[in-house]
Structure formats: structure tokens, C-alpha cells
């Protein structure tokens, strides 16, 4: 099993920045890829950014040029640098890991952007 723990959420004004972190523990050797999703109230969970094999990445169109996904020194840590945050970025952000083809989720961290 793999456990995912997010941190770094909070309240920020529009135009501000936050950095989210996701630390994986347990059978991390089984992790294939990791990424970030978000879910706003009343909306479906959506992909924000993810690694898609090796160092390849994908981003939602709405965050391109503002958000950057990266790995820490250990491959079981993933970050999401979020710049120029806007009120529409307000959501619960979830870390996701592909563990042998099975998605695992963290509990989420709240990001709130005030206008």
C-alpha cells in the first residue's frame, strides 16, 4: 500500500503563490506516476498537472504558464508550485499516484484564493 500526504494549502489573495507538497510513503517502489487534481464545490474532480512517464508532464489548459509540477530529491515527493493564483483556482487539491495501475489519493488540501 501507498499513503499520500498533502501539505501547503491555505488562503491567499489573487495574484499570490502557494506551493503544495505530496509525500508518499509505504510501497513507493510501486508508484508509476504522480500528479495533482482538484475539486471545486459542485464540480467534478479535474486534472491539474501530472507526470506522464519519465519527466514528461501534462497540465490543464487553465493552469499552463502559472503552475509547475516537480519532484523532490526523492522520487516519492511531488510539488505543485502555483503562481498568479486566481479565485477560480479555489478548490481542494488532491495528490494522486498510479500504483501498479490503481489510483491512490491523498486526503486533499484546501486552497482558497480571495479576490
Polypeptide structure, described:
The protein is mainly β and 115 residues long. It is 0% helix and 58% strand. The protein contains no helices and 11 strands. It has strands spanning 2-7, 10-13, 18-26, 31-39, 46-51, 57-59, 67-71, 77-82, 91-99, 102-105, 109-114. The model has no long low-confidence stretch (mean pLDDT 95).
**Strand content bin:** over 45%
Outline the biggest β-sheet: 7 strands, mixed
Proportion of residues in helical segments:
under 10%
Mean residue pLDDT: 95
pLDDT < 50 runs, ≥5 residues: none
What structural class results from the helix and strand content? mainly beta
Structure summary, number of beta strands: 11
Spatial shape: globular
Q: Over all CA atoms, what is the radius of gyration?
A: 13 Å
Number of helices: 0
Measured between the Cα atoms of the first and last residue, the distance is 40 Å
Helices and strands, in order, run as: EEEEEEEEEEE
Short description:
With 115 residues, this protein is mainly β. The chain contains no helices and 11 strands.
Helices and strands in order, then pairings?
Elements: E1 2-7, E2 10-13, E3 18-26, E4 31-39, E5 46-51, E6 57-59, E7 67-71, E8 77-82, E9 91-99, E10 102-105, E11 109-114
Parallel strand pairs: 2-11
Antiparallel strand pairs: 1-3, 3-8, 4-5, 4-9, 5-6, 7-8, 9-10, 9-11
Notable characteristics:
115 residues, mainly beta, 4-stranded antiparallel β-sheet
Amino acid at each position: 500500500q501507498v499513503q499520500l500526504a498533502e501539505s501547503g494549502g491555505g488562503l491567499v489573495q489573487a495574484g499570490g503563490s502557494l506551493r503544495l507538497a505530496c509525500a508518499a510513503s509505504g510501497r513507493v517502489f510501486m508508484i508509476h506516476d504522480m500528479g495533482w487534481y482538484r475539486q471545486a464545490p459542485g464540480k467534478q474532480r479535474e486534472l491539474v498537472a501530472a507526470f506522464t512517464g519519465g519527466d514528461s508532464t501534462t497540465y490543464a489548459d487553465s493552469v499552463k504558464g502559472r503552475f509547475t509540477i516537480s519532484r523532490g530529491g526523492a522520487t516519492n515527493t511531488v510539488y505543485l508550485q502555483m503562481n498568479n493564483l486566481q479565485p477560480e483556482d479555489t478548490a481542494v487539491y488532491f495528490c494522486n499516484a498510479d500504483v501498479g495501475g490503481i489510483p491512490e489519493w491523498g486526503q486533499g488540501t484546501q486552497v482558497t484564493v480571495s479576490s
